[in-house]
């Protein structure tokens, strides 16, 4: 995925300005920045839901996964039928989409819950269903718009660990919007910091750890040092916004 000189304006509101960003397969980029700086707009551009006002966005690959802040499940459909939806929309035969859905459900650890409806699941399980739904089509580009923000800390950390395992297994190109610096550092190969609106990239910080990342790596001195670098860039970005 490549952004070159990308700017977006909504009427008189400049949301993004001059963004250059390339994300390859096997890279997970965390996007952090002050509220309203254009993070969701950047994901919508990557998904092709909207176009830039200036510059170019190019995405190569066959499939896209998008996970929203809410699980956005259909309450009347079972887990299985929710996860089958992308295959159904793509016109896959029933046997094929059932197989893909069963595989994705297994990958997020929900085998046995196929017949449950969303209301019968916890918030963390609903988010796993949402991740599985996006996973069915084996996305080359996987976009996450703060998917764990509404979950409790323990669930959030566990889902982060599971997402890291998926990333290692699938090796997609990922863009993960978060307001949590530790979450961004734990998940990402790079953390990109945007300034206050209009969002510009003010820092692109590599995360110097290999995968798999054990949960306790969050408490290592190297982890703290990387998080401190991101935090300093973010504070600078917020001052730009003021
Ligand atoms: N469809 C739209 N029409 C008009 N303005 C919009 C539209 N979408 C976004 N904006 C504006 O563009 C700016 C960036 O919005 P965006 O949702 O991308 O920010 P964000 O960084 O994701 O915010 P947050 O962290 O609070 O979720 C905001 O000022 C927002 O009001």
List the helices and strands and how they pair.
Elements: E1 2-10, E2 13-22, E3 28-32, H1 39-47, E4 54-58, E5 64-67, H2 79-83, H3 85-89, H4 94-107, H5 123-135, E6 141-145, H6 153-170, E7 173-177, H7 181-187, E8 190-194, E9 201-206, H8 221-241
Keywords: ATP-binding, Nucleotide-binding, Transport
GO molecular function: ATP binding
Protein name: ABC transporter ATP-binding protein
Characterization of the model:
The protein is of the alpha/beta class and 242 residues long. It has 2 domains: 160 residues, P-loop containing nucleotide triphosphate hydrolases (Rossmann fold); 66 residues, no CATH class. Helix content is 38%, strand content 22%. It is built from 8 helices and 9 strands. The strands form 2 sheets. The protein has a 6-stranded mixed β-sheet with strand order 5-6-7-3-8-9, with helices on both faces. Helix 6 links the parallel strand 6 and strand 7. The protein binds adenosine-5'-triphosphate. The site of adenosine-5'-triphosphate (ATP) has 12 residues, from strand 2 and helix 1.
What's this entry about, in short?
The chain has 242 residues and is α/β, with parallel strands linked by helices.
Bound molecules: adenosine-5'-triphosphate
Please identify which CATH superfamily of the largest domain we are dealing with.
P-loop containing nucleotide triphosphate hydrolases
Largest sheet: 6 strands, mixed
Distance between the termini: 31 Å
> What is the CATH level 1 assignment of the largest domain?
Alpha Beta
What structural category do the secondary elements indicate? alpha/beta
Any idea what the radius of gyration is? 18 Å
> What general form does the structure show?
globular
The share of residues in helices is 25-40%
> How many strands in all?
9
| Individual helix count | 8
- Count of domain modules: 2
GO molecular function, one term: ATP binding
Organism: Luedemannella flava
Protein name: ABC transporter ATP-binding protein
Pfam family, one: ABC_tran
């Amino acid at each position: 995925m490549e952004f070159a000189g990308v700017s977006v304006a909504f009427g008189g509101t400049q949301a993004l300005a001059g963004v250059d960003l390339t994300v390859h397969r096997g890279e997970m980029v965390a996007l952090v920045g002050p509220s309203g700086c254009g993070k969701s707009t950047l994901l919508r551009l990557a998904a092709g839901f909207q176009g830039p006002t200036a510059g170019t966005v190019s995405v190569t690959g066959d499939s896209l996964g998008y996970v929203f802040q809410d699980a956005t499940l259909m309450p009347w459909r079972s887990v299985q039928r929710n996860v089958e939806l992308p295959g159904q929309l793509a016109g896959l035969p029933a046997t094929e989409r059932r197989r893909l859905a069963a595989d994705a459900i297994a990958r997020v650890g929900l085998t046995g819950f196929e017949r449950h409806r969303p209301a019968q699941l916890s918030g963390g399980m609903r988010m796993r269903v949402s991740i599985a739904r996006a996973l069915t089509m084996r996305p080359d580009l996987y976009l996450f718009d703060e998917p764990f923000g509404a979950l409790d800390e323990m669930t959030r950390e566990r889902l982060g660990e599971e997402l890291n395992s998926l990333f290692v297994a699938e090796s997609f190109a990922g863009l993960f919007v978060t307001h949590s610096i530790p979450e961004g550092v734990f998940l990402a190969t790079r953390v990109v910091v945007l300034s206050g609106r209009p969002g510009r990239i003010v820092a692109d910080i590599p995360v110097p750890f290999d995968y798999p990342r054990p949960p306790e790596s969050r408490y290592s001195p190297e982890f703290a040092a990387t998080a401190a670098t991101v935090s300093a860039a973010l504070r600078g970005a917020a001052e730009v916004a003021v």
